[in-house]
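Late entry, guanosine-5'-monophosphate complex.
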Amino acid sequence: MPNDPAPNGRLAPGKLVVISGPSGVGKSTIVAQVLQRSGDRLRLSTSATTRPPRAGEQDGVEYHFLTDVEFSRRRSEGEFLECKEVFGRGHWYGTLWSEVRPSLEGGEWVILEIDVDGAEDVLKKFESPITIFICPESPEELEHRLRSRGTENEEAIHRRLSVARRELQLADRYEYQVVNDTVPRAVDEICSILQNKGLPYD
Ligand code: 5GP
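Prediction complete; structure with ligand written out below:
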């Protein structure tokens, strides 16, 4: 399989899979099911963030929750493959090299669930990641989903919707666009893409 340069200059036998899509589109649910259906060779990178945990989120599971100070220290020490201030309000998100490098070197496929700007930075560092953009059926459907999730206040919802509009315009930069009309169908489509790209099943 196909080889992107690892940071140490060698060729890494694993593969990166970049999945983006607007906030509220259902990425996490879809990715969780793709992981369940795939063999042990596919894993999800746990990002770091400075945003506070939502109810039920655990440090080291959904994210590595870092303070602003810790995030910026690790950033200045070069620990991030990419990192971005995603909603322009002081919350940083980033992919740690430690989540990616050992897996790629061990031949695993690693999913990065990241925003469109982070994805651009990944494309500058890796030659041929698989890129998948998850779209809502319509902008109205996305707004409905964000509101019914009930995790954000009105101001945050507006901010997320305006970011979503920009992200949707960039969807065609991704190799694949998958519409989340129903979760099982979207999961099927992503599993087929990965299989066609050669993801080894156990
Ligand atoms: P949430 O706060 O809803 O968990 O995530 C907000 C957004 O941050 C999502 O659209 C997600 O794609 C993005 N995100 C999560 N982790 C990362 C990361 O490591 N890097 C970048 N660039 N974006 C991320």
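The chain has two domains: 1-45+108-196, 46-99. Will revisit in the morning.
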